[in-house]
Each structure stands twice: as C-alpha cells, then as structure tokens.
Amino acid sequence: MVWKKITLTYEYQGKKNTLTGNTPLVNEHLSLQTQENSLILSNKVPIRLLSLEVIIPWNYTKKDRIFVHGFQSWSDSREFTQQEKIPGLPPHLRFAYAQYHLEFYGDYHFYDYTRKKGQFHSHGWTLSGQGENWHLVGSLDENSAYTIFEHHPEKRVLRIIRDVEGWEMNAGSITNLLSLFFTSGNLSYAQKRYFEMYGLSPSQLPKISGWTSWYNYYTNISEEIILSNLKSFKEKKLPINIFQIDDGYQTAVGDWLSLKPSFPHGMKYIADAIHEAGFRAGLWLAPFICESKSIIYQKHPEWILRYDDGSPVIAGYSENWNGDFYALDLDHPEVKNYLREVFHTVLHEWGFDMVKLDFLYAASIKPSYGKTRASQMAQALSWIRELCKDKTILGCGVPITSALGKVDYCRIGCDVGLDWEDIRPARIHFRERISTIKAITTTLGRFPLNRIGFINDPDVFILRETNNRLSHEQKYTLYMVNQLFGGLLFTSDNVGEYSSQTENLYRLQFPLAEPPVESLTQHHEIYNFRPRSSSLQAVGPVKIYASYYTGWVKLPFCSAFLIINTGNKTLSQKLPEGIFFDPLQENYHQKTYTVPPYATRILLHILPSERWQYGGSTEHLFPGHGFLSLACTNTHLSYELHSHAFSGGKLFLVSLQDSPLEYQGKPLSIHKHPYGFFYTSIEL
C-alpha cells in the first residue's frame, strides 16, 4: 500500500505540534511508522492527539458509484453517482436551525463537509465501483477512534480522517493508530468479507415482529391505550413476538422510574399483562440524556457532561421534551449508580424482556477524560451490555460502527414519517430527518449489515388508513422493504381498527420469512418534489433523491424478480426471459411490466414443464413460505399450510400439457393461457 501523505497533530505541554510527510515521521516526542496497512505510533512523552489525516491513491472511473455509510442510525447510507453531492447543513441558513441543535444529531460538529459535487465522506468503510466490480476500504478498529473516508475522484485520491481528538497517551506507549482492510468483488461480497475481517460473528437471533406505541400515539400514551392495543393483538391471535411501550410513560426524559398519572398501576402491571397475552415486553429508554425539567437535571447539575467553560453539552432539541436536552457524564460514578438502578428496576423488578435504547449518540458528542468520541461510545455500550446481560437490546440513534457486536437489534435508518417526505428539513439537507423515503433507501443501502454484528431494524411499517398521509403504494413499499431487508418488524397501528382487507395484508407476513435477496441493483434518479400541503407551497420544489431497484429473491419453489420504485413516475420495466406471475393481480406477464409510482412488485419466475408444478400462490407476502409441503404426484395435488399462513389465498399450478389434475378426489378446471401453457388454481 502507498501512503502518499500523513499529517499528525498533537499537543504536548500545552503546545500544538504538527508532523507532515511520509513515514517514518520522527521528532523528539514521537515516532510514526507504517506496518503493512497500519500506522504505529510510539511516543516518548505524554501527548494528547488532536487530528490524523492520511492521503492514499484510489482508482476511479467516471461511471463509478460511491457507497457512503452514514455516521449513526438516522444518517442516510446509499450509493451516490459522481454527479451528486452531500451538501450538509448550509452555513448561510444556520439561523433557521441553530436553535434545534441539529449539528449534534449527526457528524456535522466534528467533520467539515466539502459540499462539492463528486466528493463524499463515509464512516467506517466505503466502496467505489459499479455492477459486480467494487473496491472496499474499511477500518479494522472503530472502538479507539472513528474513521472517515473522503473521496476525491477528480484527484484520484482518498483522504482518510481519523477522529483522534482528545486521545491521551502516556509516555512510552506504542499504539496502533489506524488499521485498514482492502478487498474487491460485488457489493454484497466485499462488505461481507470486510465484516469477517472486522471480527464480527453472524447473529443467530430470530427475525421477530411486534408492536410499538410511538408512530401512532407518540408521547400521548396511557395505560388504557397500551392495554387496548394489546387486547386487539390477543383477540385476533396475531403471532407477534414483542409488544413495546415507547416514549411518553415517564414524567420527564431522564426520570425513568417516575411515571405519569396515566399509568396508575405501574409498569410491572403492564409487563405482566403483555406476558399473559403471550408476548415479550419491551420498553423505550434514552439512558444517556435528560431534559431540563427532569429531577436529575435540577437536583444533580454535576451529572451533566460539560465543556471546558462549564457550559452543558447539549445533545439536541425536542418540542416533546421541553426544548433542549443534555448529555449525561457517563464517567460520573453517581450517574452510573443511577443507571444501574434504572436497568435493574426495568429488567428485573418490572420484568421487561427488551429495552429500546435511543439517542445513544449523545455519548459521543464531546471527547472527554482522555478518550475519543469512539472510545467513549464503545465503553458506554459495553457497560450497558453488562447491565442488560442476556436481555434483548434494540439500539437506536447510535453510531453504527460502535453498535456492531454490542446490541442485538439496531435501527439502521431514520424515523419513518406520516408523509413520504418532510420538505422543511429536506430543504436544509438535514440527513437525520424524519423521512419515509429516506428510511427506505437507507434500509436498502445498509441491508448487507443484517445479521452482521446485529439484526437490522428498518423502523416501522404503516398499513392503517388513518393518521398518516401515505398512499397505498407508499405503505405497501414500506411494508415490503421492511419485510425483505429487515429483521425486526414493528408497526404502531391499532390493528383493532383494521378493515378486513388491511388485516389480511398484515397477516400475510406470517410465518416470518427471510428470503435471500440477490444482485440488488440501484438505478438512480433525481426528481423535484413539491409538497401537497398548500401551507408549504411557498417553500417550492426541492430535489429529492429517488431510485428504482431491481434484483432477484430466492423463494421455496422458484425465484422472483423484485422491482422497487421509490420515484414519483410510472416505470416500464423490461423483464428477464421467461414467464412471471404477479401475486397482487393474480396474472402472468412476459417481456415488460408497468410499475406505478412508489410501488413495489415481486414477480415469480415460472418455468412450466410437461408435468403439473407450482405456478404461483398468494398465501404469503413471499409466495411459497406459507406451505409446509406441496406436491403434484401423477394427477393428484397435495399440500399442507403452516398454521400461521394466510388461509384465504390461492394456489396456482401450471403445465405445458393439458393433462387432468385433482385435489381431494375432485377434478380441477384446466385453462389455457395465451402464453401457451395450461393453468389451474384452488382456494387455500
């Protein structure tokens, strides 16, 4: 490997020092050497690191796309073309967003966006390439310091920024400052190889489904609302796994053991009710922050993390939480004692089985106590893991590279909204905004992470007819993307209010399935988005990223061609060779297929033969997964459905010959299709 230029800045006895050049870099304080793909620092005196940058050559072609991995759960992650850019929060509009402290939600406060076309930065790892040929470079240590890869295709170099700020080293230390890994291959293989080298073990936890209160009721929850929704799931015998209470039960963020009057019987009462219904109980916490009206903020100001001038470290702003909220000092012994009590109470006295831990990025805002942002984050998550032991952790709002291997399930996209896009934060390029389309594209961008260090949580899907402004196709695409690419499937819908048609659609996910997705390809498009709300028309159109995706999905009896259209235009998609069955329309297609705006379709590749065989079905979102067995022997059909499969679907069978077929001793009606094969169907 060629190291073109290295720049190390550090502080010794209050004086700033900089070394620049190629290795070895040596002065009276330290020595910096290269060792294969690593940088090794030996320091003779105690120092405090400030920054480290490395320039290496990188080959690009003009058609190469660049995969950008965002900083935390809510930061967008996807492929970019070299005609795009990441603007970041615009400095000239700071007056519009400064009061909301948006810079602390992402990486804006410790990384300077280039804001130039074709220049992109990526956290932890990155790739460039196209088709089946991608080149990956990744950091092998994100616990000591975060690594940012900044692409410069026009100069054919990669700038590597190691966030070493605040890293204090004793005299005589020998430290690996940076270790890199390189590989090539298709997108999925390259990332899988990287994660293997990173030392991550594939998660063996199950794919699960459940309910959470947030995306329907938000903070307006009560014992009555929770138990009413629980009753609906129990009465309808819906086989979910987790029933989770989100934000709104506590009197203030930070005061987790102080409950609102709307929960008169306490949280153990509700956890017991959830268990009685046959589900595991989950509870939302944001353990690293507190709001100003909380008791712990008012009585223990020393618990708040502070800057050198004594001002508190603000972690963000929420109208739901009385304005600003603050980062706790996780090195303070009393804070640790308090959080030990909180987790013991929640998990062992109240009896919750899972905790959703949110706004975790707050532990990485300010380097403190001689540790970098990454080191603080890694230590905080490891400590939380010790507190929770074998209880399930769902991480959210967390730097992804820190969460790998430390949480069981992890949010890998932003919050889903009640609209397709929120135009106001989109206009200022806020990457961590609430956005349904961005949640979908980031779920697709991060899908290779699933079961690598944790299981992906793509956030909720919404099927309900009320309290949202999503179209049917938008809701269906959100539902399908979550089912295909996620491992935790939550909704906040009141299923007791579902129409029969919507309830049937909800039931189609059972039994939960994990059909492998192969060769997912992004086809890029940028379009102007204009909000439908007349009150926002003055904002004007905004360029929103959209794309359509094509790929193959492996099903029990066939393969399926997947088309996901996130754009606002009708798509005429050329189909591969063969005959395709559309489960939604219950018909067959060849050559082309028309996909409406915002729609997703999964088309089954059917290969008729001289004998009767599977020709499609509608018993499951992913046809075939609802069958325990299916066979056509001579002229007889037999099958067995899974107990959780949708029994109101159909089974289609095809043959190239007009031969008889019977089920349970009764002959089935045979029809000839215009494409030349014969088909029949039965009600399941």
TrEMBL record:
Q: What keywords are assigned to this protein?
A: Glycosidase, Hydrolase
Keyword check for Hydrolase: yes
A Gene Ontology molecular function term for this protein is:
alpha-galactosidase activity
Q: Which domain of life is it from?
A: Bacteria
Q: Name one GO biological process term.
A: carbohydrate catabolic process
Classification via InterPro entries: Aldolase_TIM (IPR013785), Alpha-glycosidase_related (IPR050985), GH (IPR017853), Glyco_hydro_36 (IPR002252)
This one is known as Alpha-galactosidase
Organism listed in the record:
Thermospira aquatica
